[in-house]
Amino acid sequence: MVKILKFVLPVFIGLVILSCEKENFTTDSSVFLGFSVDTLLFDTVFTTIGTTTMQFMVYNHNKKDVLISSIYLAKGESSFFRMNVDGKSARELEDITIYSGDSMYIFVEATIDPLNANNPMVVKDSIVFLTNGNFQDIDLVAYGQDVHLINAEILSSQTWINDKPYLVYNSMLVDTSETLDIQPGVRVYFHKGSTLYVCGTLIISGTLEEPVVFLGDRLDDMYKDIPGQWGGIYFINGSKDNEIIFTEILNATTGIHLGNFYANDPPPDLKLSNSILQHMTFAGISSIGATVIADNCLIADCGYYTTILTTGGSYQFAHCTFANYWNWTRRTTPSLVLTNYYNLNDTAIFTGNLVNADFGNCIIEGNMDNEIGLNNLTGAGDFNYFFDHCLLKSDTSLNTSDPEFFRNVWTNKDPGFISSYEFDFQLDTLAFAKDKGLIDIANNFPFDILGNSRLEDAGPDLGAYERIE
Predict the structure, then answer these.
(1) Domain span at residue 320?
(2) How buried is 266 (Cβ within 10 angstroms: 0-12 exposed, 13-18 middle, 19+ buried)?
(3) Structural domain tally of the chain?
(4) Kind and range of the H or E run holding 19
(5) Is the pLDDT of residue 1 over 60?
């Protein structure tokens, strides 16, 4: 009998202990784990075959123990990542216990060949936690190519060269009195929601052969025309002497915004030349009282405006194509809008003098009946504009016979784009806009956005592109 008790008692005690432990696990579906991060960002720049390890912590803040049914990498065997949980390395682990008030480390390793051009710019995955029927996950982000990482940085004066791409996470800012100089051929990728803010000076010196390109970091072909993938370039009051040449700004919310309210510093200024701003959810160019001089630019495919110039300012556009055939949603706003005021959420009205808004040899076109909005608030300030040798899409509300504001303009004529719905805004052989430009304007801009001469045929064409047969 004693021998039997010696055998049965430990087994009984063990079962009781196991039963108690099992009963201590919470099965409450409202219980969640805590994490030290929500995204694990691998900010190591890979210069060879890149292997780097990072870690985060998982917490049990509950009064009972938690049994995690499963921890796994969402992409499984195709993942670029591996994880180690409490010394166990696997792509999926089951029945992991975290005791009440306890925590554990999870180590994650990314192995990526940055020289493999087939890798995406940004490599993503997630670690999924299944607990009591609840799914939680931690995002994993690393880089499939060798990049300069700019992560929420305030920049002093520096030059970016075309050795490898730049990737911006969590936005960036060019500090007051500092200059960011971007050399030909540089490509700058922005993660979702990131913006380039400029308090100082931005100089972008692209060339016809090596343009500078700004775009989102989703490089799959399906994303090439999708707007709103990043914030855009935002020039803050006090910024000055900015210049952008031969640059493509694509897929942002607003390609270029200038100026802000409640500021004592003067509005920013910008020279913009031979550039493309395309696929924006809001606007290609948005201004609050700024100064902009632009030539040979295409501004196209925007959810509200290709260009909205508010609260006055000073503007000159020559040989520019404003083309808005937006078809993602129903657009109700004209492609080009000029105002000498801004109504801020019906809480404040800001006003300013529209010193000048001159458009020469330009095309303003789109898929609405009226693509010109001129909003002059009486008493707000000057409201000066002039369209010279331009092709305009407008309704009868625009009095284009008034010589104070219009000279040699054409309305509601098909400009003759090769394919507006494929975003090819070059002119076709029989295009109406051919040879309609004023030679005096073209003499200041003898070459179009593609480097073609405007001075060697019957006359300069309207817009950014010269038709060469």
Answers:
(1) 148-442
(2) middle
(3) 2
(4) helix 2-24
(5) no
pLDDT value for 51: 63
Residues 347 and 261 sit within 8 Å (Cβ to Cβ) = no
Answer yes or no: do 230 and 355 share one domain.
Answer: yes
| Contact call for residues 35 and 138 (beta carbons, < 8 A) | yes
Joined tokens for residue 347: 């809480």
The one-letter amino acid at 349: I
pTM of the complete model? 0.79
Among 86, 115, 143, give the residue marking a domain's end.
143
CA 45 to chain centre: 22
* pLDDT category of residue 345 using cuts at 50, 70 and 90: confident
Structure tokens at 156: 């002093």
Nearest to 282 by CA among 351, 321, 234: 234
Strands 313-318 and 372-375: unpaired
| Dihedral sign for Cα atoms in the order 403, 406, 409, 413 | negative
Distance CA 358, CA 134 (A): 60
Sequence-distant (6+) residues with CB within 8 A of 50 are 44, 110, 111, 112, 113, 114, 142
At residue 51, φ and ψ (nearest 5 deg) are -125, 120
Q: What is the distance between the alpha carbons of residues 203 and 184, in angstroms, rounded to a whole number?
A: 11
Q: Burial, 255: exposed, middle or buried (Cβ in 10 Å; 0-12, 13-18, 19+)?
A: buried
Determine, yes or no, domain membership for 68. Answer: yes
pLDDT at 346: 80
Q: Are 437 and 389 in contact (CB under 8 A)?
A: yes
Which own/partner contact pairs does 34-38 have at CB distance under 8 Å and 24+ positions apart? 34/58, 34/59, 34/60, 34/61, 35/59, 35/136, 35/138, 37/138, 38/138, 38/139
Cα(463)–Cα(434) distance, integer angstroms: 9
C-alpha angle 407-441-354 in degrees, rounded to nearest 5? 60
- In angstroms, the CA 327 to CA 336 distance is 17
